[in-house]
Please model this.
Amino acid sequence: MRATLFFSILFFSQVSFADHVIYQGITGQVVSDPVFYHAIKINDQIVLGEKHDQVAIQNEEAKIIQNVASLTQKDFTLAWEFLNWSDRQTNQQLYRNFLNGSLSANEFLSKIFNSDSEKTYAPVFEVLKQFQGSLLSTNLSRSEKAPVVLSGINALNPDLLPDHFELGSKSYLERFTEAMAGHASTDQINNFFAAQCLVDDVIALHLSSAISSPLSFLIIGNFHTAYQDGVLARLQKRDPKTTRALVHLELKSDYPTTKDQLDYINSARYGTISDWVIFAE
Model:
């Protein structure tokens, strides 16, 4: 771990509070950056429930990883929803090439995805390189998940099904069905939900079994994490001793008013969406 506490203090001073607003979920209160970091740094695992492919959000994720790593001075691992477990050896070789300077962050991402589609994540990987963090591939590939999407969980290659797999909760299915309303039939929604839950559990399995560092981060779409359901529920089931904080990241432009933000954070029906919520701009 090469960074210092001085760097973190300096970094705090350089971040404008106007760049984002941070809420504590349970209280609905706005908090300062130091209060936020003091609270989350004590955890073994920090789950970043994100909106994908948004410069402001990936910049916030990079800041969170940078600050927590600097404050704790712990070795850490980043797990990312976009990396497939079956490609882990190739991913690790490309990551080593990035760490040793053979590839830039953008070149690394382009080779991983065979496209330029995920370059908003370059700041995250620059922070990983700065701290020499480890990288964990977590997910199933699209082709591995495809039978479930088409025909349900029983169509999955049984070698890919995690032990003790369970579908998500009733409220998780309810929210998923609401989100998919008008876009698919009931049978299709059930299959899509099975695939969603499969992703949750596969990622939870790898996080609970393949990480040896004292600190870890997971970047994943925030429908997988909302209301402590999805991957959070599976992580708690598989690894109940690990302490974790859930941080949701959304665009401030999507929730421009205080009322919009508070309505997002606390639902009369489902409860508090996350331990912490950041609206970035």
Strands lie at 20-24, 29-31, 45-50, 76-84, 134-139, 215-221, 244-251, 266-267, 271-272, 276-280.
